[in-house]
Amino acid sequence: MTYFIDRRPNAKHKSAVNRQRFLERYRHHIKRSVEEAVNRRSITDMQRGESVSIPAKDISEPVFQHGPGGRRTVVSPGNKEFVEGDKIRRPPGGGGGGGGTGEGSASNQGQGNDEFAFSLSREEFLEFVFEGLELPHLERKSLKSLEEIKMVRAGLSRDGVPSRMSVTRSMREAYARRIAMRAPIKRALKEAQEALAEEINKDPILKNPARIAALEAEIERLEKRIEAVPFIDTFDLRYHQLAPEPQPSSQAVMFCVMDVSGSMTQNHKDIAKRFFLLLYLFLEKHYEKVELVFVRHHTAAREVGEEEFFYSRETGGTIVSSALTLLDGIIDKRYPPAQWNLYVAQASDGDNWDDDSSICRDLLIKELMPKLQYYAYVEITPHEHQSLWHEYENVAKRFAERFAMRQLVEAGDIYPVFRELFKRRLSTP
């Protein structure tokens, strides 16, 4: 079969169609490299692409060449040594293809073929990460978030503290008051001055000295009244008034809580990691700042780093309430609900001491849920549910809008469960 490859460039000189064909053709190699990268990287290091190497033997492409038979005439420009009909000696070493020693192998001639390497973009990398989950494009959508109060200016008032005084508005009020208070006095002064000038300009026989003296006294009194108008008065002062205004929080913290008891296998942890990763990417699309807190527990709970969270071999029994108690303490100490949107994702296989499950229920209802934005619990097990699941069902009935729980059996269940958990927050494709 003959293949025709379209190398016509699209915008920015990239052949997008051919790139998609290339990714599809070498999907097996790319998928393997992406899976290795996911296991190697941290959850927060999923925002860059990945370099992928493919053995050179797997990238050969069909080419056109002359078939056997037929008559050909070849003219080599600048040939001074050979004429038509001359026989050319075979090169030393046999064939005319050189002395290659194989695909990517070492040889004493220093020749060989390197593996073909190329880079995946962030979008392509994430597409392979969630391959099989049928992940749609998430559109930015406003979330219902907890609000913090911020004091903002809300007009002016006549009362306030000096630090909030509006100088510009106070001077404007003072200027308007001076104009208003001086205007009638200035009119009276002008009338008195005109009357005095008229009286002085009269014939000496008709002048009235008593009236002239009275007018001069009136003018002096009016000038003193004008000068007595204060430059600024307490009546003129204006102060900025502050009012509380709710501000949506732009930062979130995601708590990853996982059971690491002896019943949690590495496969369970890998499934949990995919779920935590999906939730982290979802939150990152809606908040400017997202912090991660990892809490692992068996009979006791500890806050750890991501590497220890997923790959530590420490095991033991199971007391889930130890993790919830530690979680509540971390929130009170570092993440006040008025400033942070709090999300919790818990992964477990469902095992727990029977007496402890009721304690977990009470901790969630009385302490944690009033502070949290959302709580997602996934139980990774193909078996029947145990006491922890049944107690969590009581919490879900009490906080139906903010508490969700689902069961996972294999990696392919992750996205359908995620979509169900966050269906109120996902936009309709």
TrEMBL record:
Region (Disordered): 60-113
Amino acid composition bias (Gly residues), ranges on this chain: 92-103
One Pfam family here: DUF444
HAMAP family assigned: UPF0229
Family to which this protein belongs: Belongs to the UPF0229 family.
Name of the protein in question: UPF0229 protein GEV37_00260
Originating species: Vreelandella malpeensis
